[in-house]
Design the sequence.
């Protein structure tokens, strides 16, 4: 066990949580009059803040440990997970982010309620809770990998201890603090990863990456792993599949919509793209290079794709740098653990327990139910994480559930609004996604690791386009009088606020 | 190896951003033209 590293990492976590907590408490006491500003920051955020927030909020386990692991199968093409996020940010900053700001909406369920009514909103809300829980199981696995790296335990045991630490983190840090912690950790992690890439080169034979290059280039079967384009099969199955899954599931992602809503103007969001996209996209380059290096060194390759890179960082970097890097990895994953455990617990407590069973429940009772739910979900997450599903493949499967949501929102805004078509599209796409994963249907078409994104996209387009051509419905929201009056009201309220 | 992955990714990212910006400008101009045409029709 690397006791020194473990202590350094734990000290970093506690110091950061306490430091941010004290800073937030002081800040709130000074700005008590502006309560509620935290969520939307008074709608006056400048370009740098919007850009950094957009770029860093989506960096999590998949960007780090997922890419380290995926490099083993697809080589440098694993960078397409980051490239998919660049395309995502282009779409958010030049379309969806501008629409939600213009319409004055903050959540995806709100948009669905406006376009198709309450039934569609509830249908999607319940599924989103399930998807968020799925991401929680991946975060639990991520904590397990990091703890296993520091202690030498099995990842399964690390995941159990990790989930327990995660529960304490949620209770200690709280939701408001988690947002700030995420931003600080992502910044530390980014700088740490760049430094790690530099220090790693010096620690390699010849003081650069030429030995790693030679390892792959000398074998015709692994030569393609040095190119971000991979080979045609990797491009069609992994790269393109990742683009479809990420772009169509995350373009109306809540975490990305929030900074857009808080931006000073639509122009601010457009300008933010030029910083946010390269910052987010280039993160993948450093992760890919570290992953390729770990897979090329026999002593670390023997540990397998999940632990090779993190163990290499601990053993080859100066102790201060590996401590900072692992601490920021762990903190970033813990922050996402906190958010992904709180969100479904809130949905079940408020939308199901309170609304359907206990309308008169007190705040104390609801808090107790939420805490019990967090513990129950963390326990189930431990069990799922112990099965060790491949991280990026699991992410791809989870993201595929949101592909139909993007298209029904897009068609509802621009083309036609029919609740029947929207609901049948969602049902068909979700049934297809499940059937593809849990039956032998996927053996009919040998698509590879990214097949779910393709199948949900095809089913979504067939049902939504076909349904809208046949069924009657209201015209797209942007063509309606309701839209014009909403934009006018929004503009008037902004002018009054200034 | 590092610089090859670094620059090919950077060029790809910049190309995606430029293409995205061009498409967005084109769509915006088209919708502005449509809106002007509609307002002229109403007058």
Sequence:
């Amino acid at each position: 066990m690397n006791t020194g590293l473990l202590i350094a990492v734990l000290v970093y976590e506690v110091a950061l949580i306490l430091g941010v907590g004290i800073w937030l408490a002081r800040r709130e006491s000074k700005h008590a009059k502006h309560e509620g500003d935290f969520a939307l920051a008074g709608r006056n955020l400048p370009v740098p803040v919007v850009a950094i927030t957009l770029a860093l909020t989506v960096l999590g386990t998949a960007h780090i440990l997922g890419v380290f692991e995926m490099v083993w199968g697809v080589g440098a093409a694993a960078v397409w997970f980051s490239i998919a996020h660049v395309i995502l940010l282009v779409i958010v900053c030049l379309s969806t982010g501008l629409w939600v700001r213009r319409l004055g909406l903050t959540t995806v369920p709100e948009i669905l309620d406006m376009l198709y009514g309450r039934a569609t909103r509830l249908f999607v809300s319940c599924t989103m809770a399930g998807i968020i829980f799925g991401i929680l199981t991946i975060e639990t696995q991520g904590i397990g990998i990091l703890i296993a790296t520091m202690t030498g335990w099995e990842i399964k045991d690390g995941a159990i201890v990790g989930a327990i630490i995660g529960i304490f983190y949620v209770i200690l840090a709280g939701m408001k603090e988690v947002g700030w912690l995420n931003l600080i950790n992502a910044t530390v992690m980014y700088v740490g990863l760049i430094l790690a890439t530099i220090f790693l080169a010096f620690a390699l034979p010849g003081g650069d990456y030429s030995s790693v290059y030679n390892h792959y280039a000398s074998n015709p079967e692994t030569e393609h792993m040095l190119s971000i384009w991979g080979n045609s099969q990797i491009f069609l199955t992994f790269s393109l599949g990742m683009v479809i899954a990420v772009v169509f599931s995350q373009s109306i992602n809540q975490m990305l919509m929030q900074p857009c809503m808080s931006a000073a103007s639509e122009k601010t969001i457009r300008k933010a793209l030029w910083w946010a996209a390269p910052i987010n996209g280039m993160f993948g380059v450093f992760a890919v290079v570290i992953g390729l290096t770990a897979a090329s060194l026999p002593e670390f390759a023997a540990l397998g794709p999940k632990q090779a890179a993190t163990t290499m960082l601990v053993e080859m970097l100066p102790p201060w740098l590996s401590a900072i890097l692992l601490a920021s990895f762990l903190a970033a994953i813990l922050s996402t653990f906190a958010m992904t455990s709180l969100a479904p617990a809130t949905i079940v407590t408020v939308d199901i327990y309170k609304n359907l069973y206990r309308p008169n429940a007190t705040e104390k009772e609801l808090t107790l139910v939420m805490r019990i739910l967090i513990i129950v979900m963390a326990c189930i997450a431990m069990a799922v994480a112990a099965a060790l599903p491949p991280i990026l493949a699991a992410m791809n499967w989870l993201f595929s559930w949101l592909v139909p949501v993007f298209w029904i929102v897009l068609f509802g805004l621009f083309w036609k609004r029919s609740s029947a078509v929207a609901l049948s599209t969602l049902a068909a796409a979700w049934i297809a996604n499940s059937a593809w994963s849990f039956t032998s249907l996927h053996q009919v078409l040998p698509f590879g690791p990214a097949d779910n994104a393709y199948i949900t996209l095809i089913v979504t387009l067939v049902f939504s386009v076909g349904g809208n051509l046949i069924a009657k419905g209201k015209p797209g929201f942007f063509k309606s009088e309701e839209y014009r009056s909403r934009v006018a009201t929004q503009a008037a309220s902004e002018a009054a606020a200034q | 190896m590092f610089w090859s992955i670094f620059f090919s990714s950077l060029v790809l990212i910049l190309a995606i951003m430029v293409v995205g910006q061009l498409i967005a400008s084109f769509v915006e101009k088209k919708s502005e033209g449509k809106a002007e045409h509609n307002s002229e029709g109403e007058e």
